[in-house]
């Protein structure tokens, strides 16, 4: 009986482990090209599936990542995402891609991807990158300086960042383990939420002067 119980537990683990480690559900067909209307489609993982017989090569194609993007914003970077929203063939496939352009002293400020692990490759320039572990792990910082050809991984859900510390613009490409990984920018989410978080909450949370909190909320107001 004991051996039977052990076997049952192991069998359950074998069945559930793939579900627990997968960011997106595995497809049950060759592909599921995302469409925005239910006509002749089935709703799967956030998108309706186009009839496979109507799919074309263009459903699996995206062009333009060779082009530099402007970096004249406040943080000095620009993220170009290729995900299920602009490459519908990615629907249910559990992967997406971004190009990140950094101006001199530019950064991709601290943020998280709630649904994806990210692996980043430096194509041009020099970046300081890092991620911070969860509270239970002591909020440890893992950080490296990356040069052209270097790769770094940011675990799913953890706060991470990249900063251009070189003397010229930088470019990186990153793959993410979700067709739609999502992004939560720390500063603009906390101080720029709509409606605004009660300043008293932020004053205590960040141990800041009330005026400083109000200034930040006005700065990040959408």
From TrEMBL:
What protein name is recorded for this chain?
Germin-like protein
Q: Which SUPFAM superfamilies match?
A: RmlC-like cupins
User: Upper taxonomic classification of the species?
Assistant: Eukaryota, Viridiplantae, Streptophyta, Embryophyta, Tracheophyta
Give a GO molecular function annotation for the protein. Answer: manganese ion binding
Q: Which residues bind Mn(2+)?
A: 111, 113, 118, 160
Q: State the superkingdom.
A: Eukaryota
Locations listed in the record: Secreted, Extracellular space, Apoplast
By sequence similarity, the record places it as follows:
Belongs to the germin family.
Please list the residues that bind oxalate: 108, 113, 118
**SMART domains noted in UniProt:** Cupin_1 (SM00835)
Residue ranges of domain Cupin type-1 in the record: 63-214
Q: Which GO terms describe its cellular component?
A: apoplast
Which purpose does this protein serve, as stated in its record?
A: May play a role in plant defense. Probably has no oxalate oxidase activity even if the active site is conserved.
Show the PROSITE patterns listed in the entry.
GERMIN
Q: Which cysteines does the record link by disulfide bonds?
A: 32-49
Instruction: List all membrane-crossing ranges.
Output: none
Q: Which InterPro entries match?
A: Cupin_1, Germin, Germin_Mn-BS, RmlC-like_jellyroll, RmlC_Cupin_sf
Instruction: Tell me which UniProt keywords the record has, alphabetically.
Output: Apoplast, Disulfide bond, Glycoprotein, Manganese, Metal-binding, Secreted, Signal
Query: What Pfam families does this protein's entry cite?
Result: Cupin_1
> Any signal peptide, and if so, which residues?
1-22
